[in-house]
Amino acid sequence: MTANLVTAQEKQELEVEQLDEVVLSDTKFELKKENSGKIIYKITKKDIDNNPGKTVVDLLNNVAGVEINGNNNAKGSTLGLYFRGGRSRQVAVMIDGVLVSDPTGIASTFDLNLIDINQIESIEILKGSSSTLYGSGASTGVINIKLKKSSKAPIAFNYSASAGTNSTQNNRNSNFEDLNQSVGLRGTVDKFNYLANYSVSKSDGISAASDKNSQTPFETDAFLSNNGLLKLGYQFNDKFSLEFFGNYSQYDYDYDNDIYSDSEVNNGNQEQFQYGIKSNFKYNNGELVASFSLSDLERGFDTYSSWTNSIDSYLYEGKSTFAEIVNKYNFNEEIHLITGLNYQDFDNQTTTPFGNIERDLANFNTFDPYASIIYTGKNGVNLNVGARLNNHSEYGSHFVYNLNPSYNLINNNNTKLKVLGSYSTAFIAPSTYQLFSAYGNLDLKPEENKTIEFGFDSSFNKWLEASSVFFYREEESKIVFVTDPVTFESAYGNELLTQNAKGVETTLRLKPLEKLRFNLSHTYTNKSADLDYIPKNKFIANITVTPFKNTFIGVNYKSVGDRTATYYDPATFTQVETIMESYSLVDFSASHMLIEHLTVFASLTNAFNENYEDIYGYSTKGRNFKLGLRFNF
């Protein structure tokens, strides 16, 4: 890929980024990639710029070991996020170092529909157990989103807009039903820096539920989102900086009754406002980072009830507090100590026709001290050892730890070869709903995970990169919804059986020519209980070429194997198991800089109009195209 499609300032930033081989997710501080004991995949600014019109989920879904279910359905659909055979609640999402979640949800998972790609600088994906550093929820991985930075110039302006079709494989139309706009302003004046961005997205044209079993087409379900971001910073000197941030996200959506079942009245909305402050202080032997944020989330939906022949309304209101102080102390060039204190507080106010949850009751907090020792030896040996004590206001204390060695067998300018391994434990705390709802259980224990992995990471002469990791994960005390066969009373409980998942994630990157690049990946996942849309095999191939100075072309091929899933059958009142057939998709994208600062782009998704289902009973996007422009000044 090339940087010729961006401004001179952005080009300089990209060149610096390319030379700066560092990662953050492994230690929360900058660490040379060669010294990390993990294989961390990074979606860079360059990757985002070369994929205009894509969403955050589009880019994540093309990463080895990541499976996002629901991305190919109507916008606003619930997204299932799976790392290493786990579930959505086992992946932690961080935005600029702050954990984000939904305290009102059954699983407390963050909705990736709430983040807009135009606000993002880069994304790091850390796979594997990471509760020692990130706490509850980081048992199969972490998505670490870094928001855009202010420009070094006094003022910089960016605008992008796109329009595309939005139809299924069978209900074809050429109307522009997918519309997106984003505008941003950023800059630096003396020691003060600022960034403001606002994005709006609208789509229609697809029914949420599939109408393939219906004689008449279902009505379409619309989606409208708004995202705003504001960052204000002040650099007091070379050692101390302070930043205020505020983020507003909101979307409205229509949805249907159930699988293959239409509705003209069901609708929902979600709104989140998050604000806080961050400080960074560098001293002679280390660095201290402090963060504080408050989040207020409200979501609700109206749904038709066949029992009462009326519209039922549901309202969920949640508040969360995040505060953390983390310090890195360098004893010398080889030994570093990371210590931190993390505090989180959650509450949930729920109002439904079937009962309420009161905020005064449905709340809990955690207070976690943690520490890691990092050794980066000049002899090629690296070691990351850490521990965390989770102190939960409801279930008491829980201890987790990790051991992560790696060794650079070869490390010179032309060839690098690193072997790595790890053993780590992790936990997932019960949600406010699982603890305090009508089905809640205050005796719930946290889910526990144990993960072992080993593999290698290598590169040769800057034209070949290859990595492969084997993992094995055991899961105990899984929180499940249980119905007593005698009394028919239902409640959440901890499962006694131990489940496991194992697999191999392999990536290969080739750059035979300066203007030609191949990215290949394969993921194999095998679970002892495989009922949640996770394919055993997933293969992705991506080719990018810059045939001319200002032109970029990309082709992406994805093959997803058979998946096992369960769905609720309202006719029999039972859970039914089904096999989802494999499918393959081919996407094209292209961009060209017409004049300085102005780039036009186009994309074609599902080029061969593959007919498949991503989620059983719901519509899937067919062949669609998108046109757009991007202006930077």
TrEMBL record:
What are the BP-aspect GO terms? siderophore transmembrane transport
GO: which molecular function terms? siderophore uptake transmembrane transporter activity
Question: Which keywords appear in this protein's UniProt record, sorted alphabetically?
Answer: Cell outer membrane, Membrane, Receptor, Signal, TonB box, Transmembrane, Transmembrane beta strand, Transport
- Give all residue intervals belonging to the TonB-dependent receptor-like beta-barrel domain: 160-606
Q: Which Pfam family is one of this chain's hits?
A: Plug
**Which family does the entry's similarity section mention?**
Belongs to the TonB-dependent receptor family.
Entry-linked InterPro entries: Beta-barrel_TonB, Beta-barrel_TonB_sf, Plug_dom, Plug_dom_sf, TonB-dep_rcpt-like, TonB_rcpt_CS
* TonB-dependent receptor plug domain: residues covered: 34-142
- Compartments where located: Cell outer membrane
Q: Which GO terms describe its cellular component?
A: cell outer membrane
Q: What is its main location?
A: membrane
Stated name of the protein: TonB-dependent receptor
Highest classification ranks of the organism: Bacteria, Pseudomonadati, Bacteroidota, Flavobacteriia, Flavobacteriales
Q: Which Gene3D superfamilies match?
A: TonB-dependent receptor, beta-barrel domain, TonB-dependent receptor, plug domain
Q: In what way does this protein cross or attach to the membrane?
A: Multi-pass membrane protein
Q: Which residue ranges does UniProt annotate as crossing the membrane?
A: none
Q: Which residues form a coiled coil?
A: none
